[in-house]
């Protein structure tokens, strides 16, 4: 973190291009593969050979490597073009007295996202309702460092289920970093955010990236219907909380 004086001095340094305020990054997700009706017999999975030899970089809350989703039984060798290594901070800097945050995923979000993109089969397991979206997340500077490292490591695709408050493209660190990744031939995929459904709730609109959204979900939410006579009925709703919906028919079933 820089003070105002340090920032002013940095701007005068040779090679300085730009500086942006560090912002909060939120985690986005919902259940995925079951909702998309993916299966092993037909469709996208077998047609794409399950992404054979594709290197996917996941920038997220970490990973739990012992998860059965990441066992490598029956998988091919790591492509030779991969330049990355499996190494924690403590392994790289054993004499550093500073205790760094672990890359282990204590929230479940990064493990969930990575298992969808590149996980192996786990028999008799359901992911229904796993790892719902949360307001907790990280900061933009850490995300940018992850993107830069993933590109340097030789990934083919970047999966980023994160979002920030929407700002102009030329001031958005995520859009700038993803543009650099595209210049290196890396396909970048972002989530559209967990807000909505209502107008102007897509938090990531980057034209050179793939933005993934869903027009609906197969979940039900508890809701309260208030009638004109102030009588309330509690049931299931497809509308967000505190939604004002008028002139809809009442259907008895």
Automatic annotation (TrEMBL):
Family affiliation: Belongs to the peptidase S8 family.
Native source species: Phtheirospermum japonicum
GO biological process: proteolysis
Span of domain Peptidase S8/S53: 51-202
UniProt-listed InterPro entries: Peptidase_S8/S53_dom, Peptidase_S8/S53_dom_sf, Peptidase_S8_His-AS, Peptidase_S8_subtilisin-rel, SBT
SUPFAM superfamilies in the record: Subtilisin-like
A Gene Ontology molecular function term of the record: serine-type endopeptidase activity
Highest taxon listed in the record's lineage: Eukaryota
Protein name per Swiss-Prot or TrEMBL: Subtilisin-like protease sdd1
Keywords: Hydrolase, Protease, Serine protease, Signal
Source lineage: Eukaryota, Viridiplantae, Streptophyta, Embryophyta, Tracheophyta
């Amino acid at each position: 973190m820089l003070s105002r004086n340090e920032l002013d001095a940095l701007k005068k340094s040779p090679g300085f291009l730009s500086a942006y305020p560090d912002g909060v990054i939120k985690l986005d997700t919902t259940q995925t593969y079951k909702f998309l009706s993916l299966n092993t017999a037909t469709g996208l999975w077998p047609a794409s050979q399950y992404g054979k030899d594709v290197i996917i970089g996941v920038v997220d809350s970490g990973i739990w490597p012992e998860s059965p989703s990441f066992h490598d039984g029956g998988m091919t060798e790591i492509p030779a073009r991969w330049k990355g290594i499996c190494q924690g901070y403590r392994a790289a800097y054993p004499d550093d007295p500073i205790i760094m945050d672990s890359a282990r995923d204590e929230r479940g979000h990064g493990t969930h996202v990575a298992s969808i993109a590149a996980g192996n089969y786990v028999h008799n397991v359901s992911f229904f309702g796993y790892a719902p979206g949360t307001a907790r997340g990280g900061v933009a500077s850490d995300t940018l460092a992850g993107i830069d490292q993933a590109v340097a490591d030789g990934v083919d695709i970047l999966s980023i289920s994160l979002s920030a408050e929407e700002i102009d493209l030329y001031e958005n660190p995520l859009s700038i970093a993803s543009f650099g990744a595209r210049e290196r031939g890396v396909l970048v995929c972002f989530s559209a955010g967990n807000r909505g459904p209502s107008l102007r709730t897509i938090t990531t609109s980057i034209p050179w990236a793939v933005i993934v959204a869903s027009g609906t979900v197969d979940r039900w939410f508890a809701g309260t219907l208030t009638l004109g006579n102030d009588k309330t009925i509690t049931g299931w709703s497809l509308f967000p909380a505190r939604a004002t919906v008028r002139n809809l028919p009442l259907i008895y079933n």
